[in-house]
């Protein structure tokens, strides 16, 4: 079932004025810029404060609009709810509160408009700020004044959210009667509603709803508070809820009566009440339910009481004649109950009858009303059931009319076909004979078929299934479909295991052919291999090695072994392993490099050329005329101007030795790093210096190099200005973390 | 679905949770700690609001405690002071009292002498012309600078017709025009929102008076017919003078005190 439109749980919380003001001011502070300075351009200052005023106004506006729009309007409500709200919340108060908030909203807008206009003439930060302060202050004062309206609406909201969601247009059973006559007990029995039942009057103080099923439809059952027998204007809020429900809901009314008088009211009083509220029952199915049969009042009923009970169902004045438009003309006071039923809610006897009777009455009435309605009429007008002239009496069977010539022709064709075709195709022939216009149901008249030509028709699997116990019992025989050399083999027993081996593993149709092919291949191979291995012939894509190649392979293996052994020896000696980059820094030993190339089999000229190329790459910055013949610093003096790298080489010529030319300028010679001896360096003498150097190397560099650690040079600050530390507003206490 | 006062109903049927009262007691006991934690944590505007509220609460609590507590106050003991004979130290006190009275009267005299106007605000801070007027540059090259715009609150009479805008020297923008003033009656101590009738005197300059500029200290004429004041002769007074007590251009409204 779709959700009723009347669900008031969705109204949002209405906060009090202080909370509202706090929220809006805090929001304004959070969501608008906060930094402004006196020396800023005046337009910027004005915009800054204008924005704040407008933002606050918009926030107030939104909040008030939400409240005003959330609450339902009386004019658009169903009359039942409109009246119920009037009874519970006082229509005037409700409308006034909402109207005041709507007015406050427009006043807030007005204030903002005025102050924004004045801010346009602000000529200093001070003045703009004062205007903003005044504007926000006036808005807050305004809202503060509506505190009572807000509080009232919040209470109304809470109460509305707890109202049962009654759908005024749905199928409804309405339970009414004096207090304490068993209305709530009935609701508990007839539906799953679990409402409070107590042995005193006015236990039920508001409307309760339960749901029940009848005729596969959903019915809402409404329990009302008890009503007393007095004038309308003397009724209190609790009773008025009942009256509202009775007056506005199109429902079947179950008027509960307690003839045992255990409720504290006599049957006469209850009858009087029934007569008094009868106007409310007009145009509704009405059932009087005499409850509490479990107390045994049926036996103890006095004649007067019996008469009174009977009077519930008898009209006071004339009953309108059947066929008249009954309800509008009928005076309300003359309304009689449609039925009087006896129940006991405690023993749950007679409940089903009451429910059924009420539901049927209401359903009939609703359907009648629907049919009478203009909407249904519009549809009914368009419906037309065509009847053939003369009707069914004249020609009950109405077969198609086929000319005799056509019948004769078809019969001839069918006879010719039947002579040619086997018996199996009888239905086809029949269809042929009947012609395309007529329908021959081969499926529907199966039994007839079988009776006629059961022996000729091909028996299908489904027929077999039907004969042998039907679906689920019959299992199909697949073996009859086997296609074997001899059909008799189909039912042979195939052993699973023969000689301890699974037969299935050896089933291969052409296994003998495959075996023959394999053997032939093997023979061919052995023949070829014996003859051609020695003569380098290609065997199956592979070629045998020559002696020369075998020698090379051996040499490679030897060299690998040697390299591995030497490396192991080096490691055993505890020599420090040097990284590739360190080796590169060491420089190139020209002679070694050349002999290495030659050993690899490179021609002499090529090796020389490559060596020169590599040396040239590492020569350093100087582009001066430097013949590669010059082995050391002595030949450098030819250049017109000494550059820096040359001077270094010259100065440390003795240390650099033959390597001077190949070293890049970025790396100083080793000796320059040596620890100086002197009064300022803290080193006593040369031996002390050596010790220090050794210690330094041992402690730091060895580990650094061997474990590829980060050294001093690797230190870096990757991001000197991390964005999260320098961007954004700083609130209080946000200097170090953000 | 539960309906009506379902919580009450459930309690009526099943009672409270077994630990309900214990939980309530504990929550109550912890509330102090929770409040103190919040007070320590909170910063900024939230802290200001919180502390203000706490301060008010504490003050109220102290007051109620003080009301309930027994008081030990010293009362003047009338019987202790002997009639007739007055000791020397009491004479001394009396003399002091008299001198105080004298000094007050002197102050009063000075005040009267200084105040030229017998009005609520006898003195006003001078306002410079360039604060009141904003120079408007006109002409094709924006070289002409004879036009002025009033940036203070102004009152423009109802039937005012503008001069041809081209020759209008003083512009009084509609955004800064006011028609109402919140007038306080000093004896009734009530405030009314009255219509402005005119600017009687702006103490800054006569030109301001002519232009209808309203600054702090300006004397304005307001319509008090709603107040129901009666003149000495018994006629209903409708126009009365009032002095402006705030800076209208800063507050966006005019507050004034009726001169009675």
> What shape does the CA trace of chain B take?
extended
Shape of chain A: flat
Strand content of chain A: 5-15%
C-alpha termini separation of chain B? 69 Å
> CA-to-CA gap between the ends of chain A?
53 Å
Query: What is the overall pLDDT average of chain A?
Result: 80
Are there runs of chain A of 5+ residues with pLDDT below 50, and where?
Answer: 317-333, 436-454, 621-665
Proportion of helical residues of chain A: 40-55%
What is the CATH architecture term of the domain at 167-322 and 331-372 in chain A?
Answer: 3-Layer(aba) Sandwich
Provide the CATH superfamily of the domain at 167-322 and 331-372 in chain A: P-loop containing nucleotide triphosphate hydrolases
Number of helical segments with 4 or more residues of chain B: 7
Output the structural class of chain A. Answer: mainly alpha
Please trace the helix and strand order of chain B, writing H or E for each element: HHHHHEEEEEEHEEEHE
Structural account:
The complex is a heterodimer of chains A (about 750) and B (about 260). Chain A is mostly helical. Among the domains of chain A are: about 10-160, Up-down Bundle (Four Helix Bundle (Hemerythrin (Met), subunit A)), CATH 1.20.120.1190; about 165-320 and about 330-370, P-loop containing nucleotide triphosphate hydrolases (Rossmann fold); about 600-675, no CATH class. Chain A has helices spanning about 15-30, 40-70, 80-90, 90-120, 125-145, 145-160, 185-190, 235-250, 265-275, 295-300, 305-315, 325-330, 350-370, 375-380, 405-420, 425-435, 445-455, 460-465, 505, 510-530, 545-570, 580-585, 590-600, 605-615, 645-650, 655, 685-705, 725; strands spanning about 170-175, 210-215, 215-225, 250-255, 285-290, 340, 495-500, 500. In chain A, helix 1 (about 15-30) runs antiparallel to helix 5 (about 125-145), helix 4 runs antiparallel to helix 5 (about 125-145) and helix 15 runs antiparallel to helix 16 (about 425-435). Chain B has about 260 residues and is of the alpha+beta class. Chain B has a domain at about 130-260: Thrombin, subunit H. Chain B has a five-stranded mixed beta barrel. A three-stranded mixed sheet of chain B has the order 1-2-4. Chain B is extended. The model of chain B has no long low-confidence stretch (mean pLDDT about 85). Classes of the chains: A mainly alpha (about 750), B alpha+beta (about 260). At the A-B interface, helix 1, helix 4 and helix 5 of A face helix 3 and helix 7 of B. Chain A: This is OBG-type G domain-containing protein. Chain A: Its main location: nucleus.
């Amino acid at each position: 079932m779709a959700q009723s439109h009347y669900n008031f749980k969705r109204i949002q919380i209405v906060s009090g004025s202080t909370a509202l003001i706090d929220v809006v001011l805090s929001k304004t502070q959070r969501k608008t810029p906060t930094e402004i300075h006196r020396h800023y351009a005046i337009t910027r200052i004005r915009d800054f404060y204008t924005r704040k005023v407008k933002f606050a106004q918009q926030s107030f506006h939104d909040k008030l609009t939400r409240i005003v729009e959330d609450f339902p309007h009386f004019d658009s409500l169903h009359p039942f709810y409109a009246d119920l709200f009037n009874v519970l919340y006082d229509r005037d108060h409700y409308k006034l509160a909402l109207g005041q908030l709507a007015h406050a909203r427009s006043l807030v807008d007005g204030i903002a408009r005025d102050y924004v206009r004045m801010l346009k003439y602000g000529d200093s930060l001070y003045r703009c700020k004062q205007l903003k302060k005044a504007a926000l202050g006036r808005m807050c004062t305004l809202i503060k004044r509506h505190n009572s309206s807000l509080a009232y609406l919040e209470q109304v909201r809470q109460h509305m959210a707890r109202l049962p969601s009654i759908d005024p247009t749905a199928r409804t059973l309405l339970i009414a009667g004096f207090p304490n006559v068993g209305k709530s007990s009935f609701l508990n029995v007839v539906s799953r509603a679990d409402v409070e039942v107590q042995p005193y009057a006015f236990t039920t103080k508001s409307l309760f709803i339960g749901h029940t099923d009848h005729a596969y439809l959903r019915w809402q059952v409404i329990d009302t508070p008890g009503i007393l027998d007095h004038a309308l204007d003397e009724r209190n809020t609790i009773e008025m809820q009942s009256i509202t429900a009775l007056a506005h809901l199109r429902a079947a009314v179950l008027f509960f009566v307690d003839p045992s008088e255990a409720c504290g009211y006599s049957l006469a009083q209850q009858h009087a009440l029934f007569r008094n509220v009868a106007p409310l029952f007009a145009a509704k199915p009405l059932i009087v339910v005499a409850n509490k049969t479990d107390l045994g009042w049926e036996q103890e009923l006095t004649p007067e009481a019996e008469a009174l009970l009977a009077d519930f169902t008898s009209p006071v004045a004339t009953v309108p004649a059947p066929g008249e438009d009954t309800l509008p003309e009928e005076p309300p006071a003359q309304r009689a109950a449609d039925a009087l039923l006896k129940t006991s809610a405690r023993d749950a006897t007679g409940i089903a009858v009451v429910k059924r009777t009420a539901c049927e009455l209401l359903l009939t009435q609703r359907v009648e009303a629907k049919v009478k309605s203009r909407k249904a009429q519009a549809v009914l007008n368009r419906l037309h059931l065509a009847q053939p002239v003369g009707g069914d009496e004249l020609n009950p069977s109405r077969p198609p009319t086929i000319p005799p010539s056509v019948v004769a022709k078809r019969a001839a064709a069918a006879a010719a076909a039947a002579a040619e075709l086997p018996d199996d195709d009888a239905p086809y022939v029949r269809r042929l004979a009947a012609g395309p216009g007529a329908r021959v149901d081969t499926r529907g008249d199966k039994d007839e078929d079988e009776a006629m030509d059961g022996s000729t028709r091909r028996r299908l699997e489904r027929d077999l299934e039907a004969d042998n116990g039907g679906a689920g019992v019959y299992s199909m025989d697949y073996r009859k479909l086997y296609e074997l050399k001899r059909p008799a083999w189909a039912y042979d027993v195939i052993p699973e295991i023969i000689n301890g081996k699974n037969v299935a593993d050896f089933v291969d149709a052409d296994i003998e052919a495959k075996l023959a092919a394999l053997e032939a291949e093997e023979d061919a191979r052995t023949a070829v291999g014996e003859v051609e291995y020695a003569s380098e012939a290609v065997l199956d894509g592979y070629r045998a090695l020559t002696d020369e190649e075998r020698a090379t392979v051996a040499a490679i293996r030897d060299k690998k072994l040697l390299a591995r052994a030497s490396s192991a020896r080096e490691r055993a000696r505890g020599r420090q392993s040097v990284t590739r980059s360190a080796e590169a820094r060491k420089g190139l030993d020209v002679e070694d490099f050349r002999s290495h190339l030659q050993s690899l089999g490179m021609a002499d000229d090529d090796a020389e050329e490559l060596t020169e190329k590599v040396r040239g790459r590492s020569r350093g910055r100087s582009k001066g005329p430097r013949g590669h013949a010059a082995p050391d610093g002595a030949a450098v003096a030819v250049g017109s101007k000494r550059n820096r790298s040359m001077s270094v080489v010259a100065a440390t010529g003795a240390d650099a030795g033959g390597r001077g030319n190949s070293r890049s300028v970025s790396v100083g010679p080793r000796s320059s790093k040596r620890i100086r001896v002197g009064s300022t360096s803290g080193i006593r003498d040369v031996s002390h210096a050596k010790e220090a150097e050794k210690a330094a190397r041992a402690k730091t560099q060895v580990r650094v190099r061997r474990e590829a650690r980060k050294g001093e040079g690797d230190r870096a600050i990757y991001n000197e200005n991390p964005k999260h530390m320098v961007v954004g507003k700083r609130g209080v206490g946000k200097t170090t973390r953000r | 679905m539960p309906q009506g006062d379902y919580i009450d109903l459930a309690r009526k049927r099943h009672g409270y949770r077994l630990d309900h009262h214990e939980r309530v007691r504990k929550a109550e006991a912890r509330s102090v700690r929770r409040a103190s934690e919040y007070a320590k944590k909170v910063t900024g505007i939230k802290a200001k609001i919180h502390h203000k509220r706490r301060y008010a609460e504490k003050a109220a609590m102290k007051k109620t405690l003080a009301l309930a507590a027994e008081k030990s106050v010293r009362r003047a003991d009338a019987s202790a002071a002997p009639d007739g004979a007055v000791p020397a130290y009491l004479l001394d006190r009396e003399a002091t009292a008299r001198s105080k009275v004298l000094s007050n009267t002197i102050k009063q005299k000075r005040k009267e002498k200084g105040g030229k106007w017998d009005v609520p605000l006898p003195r006003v801070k001078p306002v410079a012309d360039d604060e009141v007027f904003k120079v408007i540059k006109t002409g094709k090259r924006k070289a002409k600078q004879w036009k002025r715009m009033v940036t203070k609150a102004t009152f423009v009479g109802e039937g005012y017709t503008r001069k041809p805008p081209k020759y209008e020297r003083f512009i009084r923008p509609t955004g800064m025009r006011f028609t109402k003033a919140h007038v306080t009656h000093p004896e009734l101590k009530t405030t009314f929102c009255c219509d402005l009738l005119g600017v009687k005197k702006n103490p800054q300059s006569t030109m301001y008076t002519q232009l209808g500029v309203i600054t702090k200290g300006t004397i304005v004429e307001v319509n008090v017919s709603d107040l129901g004041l009666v003149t000495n002769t018994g006629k209903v007074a409708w126009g009365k003078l009032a002095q402006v007590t705030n800076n209208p251009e800063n507050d966006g409204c005019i507050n004034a005190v009726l001169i009675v």
